[in-house]
Queue: 2 jobs
Job 1
Amino acid sequence: MATQRTIAIIGACSANGKIASKKLASGNTRVLLADENMEDLVLLKNEIEAGHSGVEVEIKECIKEAGWEADIVVLALNWQAEKEIFTMIKPFMTGKTVISFSKDNNCLLPYSKVISIKEDRKDWANEMEEQINNDF
Amino acid sequence: MLAGIAYFYRYYMFEELFKNIRQKIAITEKEEDICRSLFIPKKFRKKQYLLQQGDVCKYTAFVEKGLLRSYIIDDKGTELIMQFAPEGWWIGDLYSSLTGEVTEYNIDAIENTETLLLTNQGYEQLMQQAPVFERYFRLLIQNSFIAMQRRLKGNIILNAEEKYKNFIHLYPNIVQRVPQHNIASFLGITPESLSRIRRQMTER
């Protein structure tokens, strides 16, 4: 029996965010979706729930709360937005795994395990899933 | 503003932990920062598990706010409560995390709970970077050893009412926060006996 893990996806409605959300919504996982666009979030949540029965998907309005609850955080944002988010969630990220699509941001979250994903690689989603599963 | 929020939580999240540490040892701001770099802030919802039977215990948790409990499930499916952990308490399965063997315990949240988690690796790093914590953890383990002996002795010698009085003394603030059958399970008595004892105590 494995204890449920919590994955927060910030910027869930971006192209990468959607792929990551669908990929990671499996097994004993609670997925927390966060984005500015509430309408798109609801659509995404419905889509994930329809495709993956038994997965717990939830919309989180507060990024800080999502980060605090999560074991793993996926940042699917552009670089500028990411920097702002980093500042906001930094205190909650200690010891957690952070998936990022931008280059070289280890310095911004020195106490997290930052995994940089190269989105131009065809099977980045599978690689990301593998990295996360190795960790947990 | 964002940096302001981060600054606030830097202190808010560690308030109880530093209070607890300072009751036992003196630490500097630098040592506080070492803690901030090693403890994992994690929020649990009511009924969410920190640890489940059959897993290996990865974390020892300090409760900043809220309430956790640890329990074993017996052959008949009954929950036997070993410990409650309100604010300022530590909880985990030392045996499993030290040996790497799977745990028999379950730890879950009775209330929404804010915790600070420490991994084995984090624990070792903390000792290396701030040796003053050797003393802190020695005192913790000493106290937990004494508490365990008391609980063992209580179970063998005390009657149900004395056990309940001990419980109120040990956990003064949680009697109202925990379901009665959980308290009965912790004391090893039936919920009916507990309810009778409580009635008798208020009638006196």
Job 2
Amino acid sequence: MRKNRSRRRWSGPAALACAGVLALATACGTSSGDSSGGGSAAEDQGGFTAPDIPMQDSVGDPEGQVNILAWPGYAEDGSTDKSVDWVTPFEEETGCQANVKYFGTSDEAVQLMKTGEYDVVSASGDATLRLIASGDVAPVNTDLLKNYPDIAPFLKDQKFNSVDGQMYGVPHGWGANLLMYNTDVVKPAPTSWGAVFDGASDYAGKVTAYDSPIYIADAALYLMKTQPDLGIEDPYALDQDQLAAAVDLLKKQKENVSEYWSDYLKEVQAFKSGDSVIGTTWEVINAVAQGEGAPVEAVLPEEGSTGWSDTWMISSKAQNPNCGYLWMDYITSPEAQAQVAEYFGEAPANTKACALTSDKTFCDTYHAEDADYAAQIHYWTTPIEQCLDGRTDVTCTNYGDWTTAWTEVKG
Amino acid sequence: MHQLRRLDDGLDRGEGLTLSIIDRRPGLRVGLLLTPPMLWLGAAYLGALGALLITSLWTQNDFTGNIERVWTLENFKTLFTVEVYRTITVRTIGLAALVTAVDALLAFPIALYMAKIASPRAQRLLVIAVLMPLWASYLVKAYAWRGMFSADGPIEWVLQPFGLNTPGYGMVATTVTLAYLWLPYMILPVYAALERVPDSLFEASADLGAGSVHTLRRVVLPMAFPGFVAGSIFTFSLTMGDYIAVKIVGGTTQLLGNVVYDNQGAANNLPFAAAVATVPIVVMLGYLAAARRTGALESL
């Protein structure tokens, strides 16, 4: 029943929009249509253009509810932990009841957004471009968000959250994938990703890695620094040969891998029991593992790192667009940002939040205002055929190729 | 009778007509009785399988994840030509066969004891004991085995004095966990088959001079065979489709189920996931055909 309703809603305004603009022929299919992501040239993204979805120009009366699709921990209403609640104040302030659904991977988020049942989503950089290209999200009018000017400038107009200078969301927070190790076993402390690639055999059977095609970028980043001959400029822009080199490296790594993780609690447990002693991690995992008494440390290796930068986006089929905008503005306010960032363990996008965190050194720990640190991070970005590093003489491998490659790595 | 007739007359004319048609035509009655379940079987069950097959002939836009309804055999071509999928298929079938063999070996003595040696009271208790693990969640049992095989778990603790280590997460742990999970499904049919073996056959066999080993081999095993076949259909098909236990204790091991899951859940590639999902279906059809040929299914 619900699906029917959303389908009908979609056909109304969307059909109008389609009729208006000729170029939309490819973008206005059914929800499982055939949009190809366009074709004309835009220099910074190697020719990627977005389907023409209308942008909202004002925020009207709240609809009374908003359907939120979020990473776990991004929209807490006190049901997990009574003291962790920034959703209730939002509901009281705006009169929009927040219906929150959490997702586990970027791919799940992309899939769920296709249903049209969610108004806003906290998308990581490896989901954003896919959502934009498939026409599932609309451009965001940042003039309607009063907190937008306070967002750290180095997070705005990035390759993964904007197209041709048009923002498709509002930055939420960011963090780096770190190298975590067991301090009892791994000595001396590692300073390079080499510890899990070329040097992985020192910890044979105890290495761990993130179980997602996007982890190929970690290998590509390492190759970018150690094998300049391959000519990798951006770990998300790999041609066939570069992808093959990364896959080879990952296959060699696999011989020493105990298991791959995608559930963060599984990694905490593996480090606690000693099944894993070294591998990629998130700040929040390090904190939880240390909190549970595991002898672990996490470092940002000298090669720099991959990482995530999350963006709140609004669905092109949003049934509650006004509440959606109100939510995007609220969740990027200094008060909400301080709570989310501290709970999740990441740098807040709104740097005014730094004055409001309960731990006053929090923003320093997470380098929230450190543009140089942020520049060392290669944020998760969806690999597409148009090379993101600006090369036009080759075709790059896309996310589908990466998925197949990842299956081959795991064998 | 008279009163009834009058009641009948009082009924709505159309309704009375329908009732009498149903009374007069047994074929129609059977038809009405069977239509809902047949619809369920046809539409919901076979329909879903058909939809799966159709989806596998479509393709997906790699980037946006939208399904493109273009007829193509591309998914099956990838499935047969890319080596990693062959490796995974062979691994999955091998694991299913191994788990089935382990379960058959474990189930036979237990089922034999339950059916022929235990007292009626012990028999009931044993049946409950065999069924008991089925009351606990699949996930709890799989995670219990994750603890067993962990580097600081009981297996490591037992093996360490002998200079050995836990095998860790991988094929060994997966085989043990799946064999444990599916064991009741093997014990019960074998037990049922053995229970039907009359005690007089044992006496007759002994009278004719056969030792206990000989009796087991020539009398009991052939009569238990249909039970093994029935049990193996469970253990084999359940292993063919498993992807959760292997995610928990399998380390880096991938099975067909994981490929389906990764393509559906992670890559949004429903058409390719559907194509991969047809592999266990084909394997199971082959397995069932082979089971039928043994004649075991008739004597169940």
